[in-house]
Structures are given as C-alpha cells and as structure tokens.
Fold each of these.
Amino acid sequence: MKNEFLIGVISYNNGKNLYKTLKKINKSFKYKVLVNIDGSTDGSEKYITKKIHKVLFNKKNKGVGYSIIKIINYAIKNKYKYLVIIPGNNKNNIIESRRIFLKLQKEKYEYIQGSRYLKGSRHDNTPLFRLIMVKLHALMFSYLFKVKCTDALEGFRGYNLKIFKNKNINIKQSWLYGYEFETYLHYKILKYKFKYGEVPVSKIYPKNKASIFNPFGEKYSHIRPVIDWWNIIRPILYLMLKIRK
C-alpha cells in the first residue's frame, strides 16, 4: 500500500481527544497516517504517541480548509492515490477509514462522504440543533442536484486525488481556508457529476457537553454561532451567483 492510501488527521487544540483518536489504531491497521496541527496552543503534539507517518505544523491557526488543502497538496506531491480526512476530536472512529478506502479503490468512487444518518452509522448524543441543521443542509444539496444526500457536514470523508486535476475544482483560493472549503468541494463534486457516494460512519458526541446551561461541560466544537454558520453556507451562494469560482 506504499503511496496509495493516506489518512490526514486535522487537529486544532484537541489535546487528549487527539490522543484518543489515534489510540483507536490497532496492529491490523496498515494505512499511513498524517497529522496536521493547526496552530494549536495546548501542546497537542505531545499527545501523538502512536507511530505516525508524518506530522505537519501550521505556525498559526489557519483554519480547517487550509489544513485540508495542505494535506491534499502533500498527498499529491508524494503521489498518493486516495486520501481520507478525519477530525482529531475523538468523535469519529479512524478504523472506519477502511470503508471509505474500499469505496474509492474497489468501487471506483471519486468522492466519499461519511454519513452519520445511513444504516449502520451512529450519532450518539448529537445536540438537537446540530441534528436538525445537518439534515436541512443535506436536503438543500439533495434538492439542488437531485441526488440522495444524507450528510454534507460530516468532516470524515475521502477523495480520489485525481479530482484535483479537474479544471472545475480550484483549491488555490484563500477564501476557502475556513469552513468554506468542505461546502465548496461538495458543491463542485455534485455539480460536475463526479462519482459520489456515502458510507455510514460513527459520530459520537460527549455526554457531558458544554453549553450556556452547562459551562463546565466538555467543549465539543470550535464552530462559532452565526459567523461560522455563514462561512459554511456562503460557498453555495457564491458559486450559484458566480461571485466566486
């Protein structure tokens, strides 16, 4: 599997949750794993105790899109064929990457979206607001492109790296450095009819979640209300109105 499959773990101030994400790797798991530390200030690197293929560092927090693009560029430069991206926040199970790679390699899919709402998936302890918004967001894509889309916000997904050679996809744009990137790419994949599919994945939120009613609970997201909701949605409007390419 040399230079065929790569898993990119993106992490910003995930600390012990990054450790728990990597701890799930067992002896039978043969894929190469790269970790990108996005300007973390919590000493996240000390939690990388597994034998990891490569660690990349952003000196400052640049954003999830920037980190994904950086990993994509690394994978292309080093001639990998397939890439899986997974957040390092311990809400997903890295072992399930096999499901995504299988679809990409054996079934010749070009883009695989992990879904927490397919049969065989899990979405334990999901906050009600997020449960509703994820489904509405997916319905919007389903309506726009007349495809079955159950989840377009799950950060656990995979690519055949050849898609980035397509002239209709341009990841060399700084406005994609935040949460915009994932929505932008999803839109492009569906609009230009790449071979797209979904696989069931686990998305487990902590039981004791932080909220305005529980300030001492566990923080489960870096997404800022309103500001980042707009950042997630705006690529759809920008592309539809041809404000951006």
Note: The chain has one domain: 5-240.
Amino acid sequence: MKRNVLVVQHTPEETPGVITQLLEESGYGIRTINTVAENWAPSDSGDAAALIVMGGPMGVCDTDRCPFLRNELRLLENAMKTEIPVLGVCLGSELLAKALGAKVSRGKQKEIGWFPITLTEDARHDILWRGVESPFLSFHWHGDVFELPYGAVSLARSERTECQAFRYGSKAYGFLFHAEVTPQIAEGMIRAFAEEMRQEGIADEVILLETEQHLPRLMKMARNVFSRWVDLIGS
C-alpha cells in the first residue's frame, strides 16, 4: 500500500513545490491539510511516513488568532518522538524551532526576495547539504527569526539572519528560506502578499525579474537536496 506524507499548508500559494514531484516520483502519496481554511490541525501524524509543515503569513505567537497553531506545535513534537522525517519551511521552521524550545521573535528587517545563503562548516558533513556550493542565491519571505534550538546543528545563515537552517537529530530539518520555490509559488506569493511588499517598498517587477534569472539554478540544487530528504523516509 502506498505510504502518505502529511503536508500542512497555511496558504494555497505556499505548497511543497519541488518536493511534491520528488515525493510522487518516489511513490509516496501526499495528504494535505490547509489548517487556515479548515481552522484545524491534527496533533499527531497518524501513520504518515513523514511530515512537512509549510509557510504562512502568521507567526508562531499568533495562537489566539490562529488556535490551530497549538496543535501544529504538538504535531511536530509527536512526529519527532516517532522519529519520522520532519521538514519545516519558513513558518514551518519557526514552529519546529519553537517546538524544540527555541526563541522565535521579530527580525530587525524583513527578508523578502533573492538573497545569498551561506552554508556552515557542519553543513559540509550533513547528509542533505554535503557537496552543495556555498554561497547560493535563494528565495526568501519572512519577518520572524529564531535562535538555534538546544541540541540542534546550524546549517546555514544569511547576512540578515544568523540561523537560516538547522537539523535536529538525524531526520528533522528547518529551512527558513524557500528552496522549494517554483515559478508558480513565487508568482502566487507576489500576488497574495502585494500589500506587504508595498509596505516594505519592494517592487514586484524586480522580484519577478530576479526569479526569472535565479530560479533555474536554485531548482536544480533543490532537487538534489530534497531528493536526499525524501530518501530519509525509506531509511
């Protein structure tokens, strides 16, 4: 029987992108829960083979406005206890950091657009990131940042954000940046969050042009990195 990967989404635009195709190519089904639309999230992953928690415009402290976030934190905690592969992207990485006891707070400046990511020395030996050229340009869209959780390994940073990626144990990863992005995701986020861009003084045509220039190389790298994460599911 085909095993499913549980995907938690908060907006229609922020999908697993590149990861979706890799999961399908490896024979996994995908069960998606849009916690905002359903105003609900499960507190455990059931028989899911892995868990992915995607991004969204809310913050980890918005539990009064978004009470489903409390269950998402429990979902991440329980998934790590069962030692299935876990991947948190953007908001998902912030929730993962919070579930591990790390401080999550507002950053000094929002990071929206294309900015370099520099891998740490530990990333050179990480099963996902070894052999990846550093620095590389990635897509970003976040205002919050997190401290490195106790016991976790820092994997990447950017000029504005000290902790951009981490690994906890051998199968739980948090990526604040959007390596999974596709043209559809980038264009969808630009449309959906146009007001936020206006407030930050960012022109959509600039990000669209940069996306056209930089995305092909990022997608090639992302397929390599995320295919290794998919391999963790069967290990």
Note: Helices lie at 18-25, 35-38, 68-82, 91-99, 183-192, 194-200, 204-233.
